[in-house]
Request: fold
Amino acid sequence: MLKGKRAVVTGSTSGIGLGIARALAAQGAKVMLNGFGEASVLEGLKKEFPAFSAADISKPEQVRALIREATDKLGGVDILVNNAGIQHTAPIESFPAERWDAIIAINLSSNFHAIQAALPQMRERNWGRIINIASTHGLVASPQKVAYVAAKHGVVGLTKVVALETATTGITCNAICPGWVLTPLVQKQVDARAAQQHISVEQAKVDLLSEKQPSKQFTTPEQIGALAVFLCSDAAINIRGAALPVDGAWTAQ
Reply:
């Protein structure tokens, strides 16, 4: 379905980003990966995805360079998936200012810089798909996540503005808002909870999910990838400016 299309997925060396990159590639898209990781892991990914960039998404000039590099290596950027993100938790009174700045830079500002860099060529071709990976926390809040919640709410707002500005074109912009997704990072949280509370890993999963996600099931990176593929399809041409929850009824409460 996506043969001939060129995609950039930020923060795509593991988890949701990698799931999306693989889903797009499976549909024929040429995909540029971006991110950090252990050398041995990256070597394997570079064999799977020859186009790779280690651009630091916290730096605006490197975000713009990523789009230029993808344009040079792939021949253009038709699909932009802004996925890179980091997290830090603390009460607002003790939340480190430098962590606030880093989270806003990576989780929100990088999306703006990437869209601004890629949109002109999408307009030239009158075709493009911009998919911002927000979060359930782009729709609702949780304590001790002030920077993350603020950034993800910002991503949802950014998505709406871009959708309005491209509403009469062949370019769409939408946000996916996952709840708990079973990524390597989340698995570490589950394992830590199990160890601290002396319970099984399976019980730790149930306990974690029960706090927020009524389905008591994790979403998988592959499921998020499938939704991203759908948003790139002709069937989704009139889905514009949407913030699509994939959260097991978290935001239905």
In short: The two ends are 36 Å apart (CA to CA).
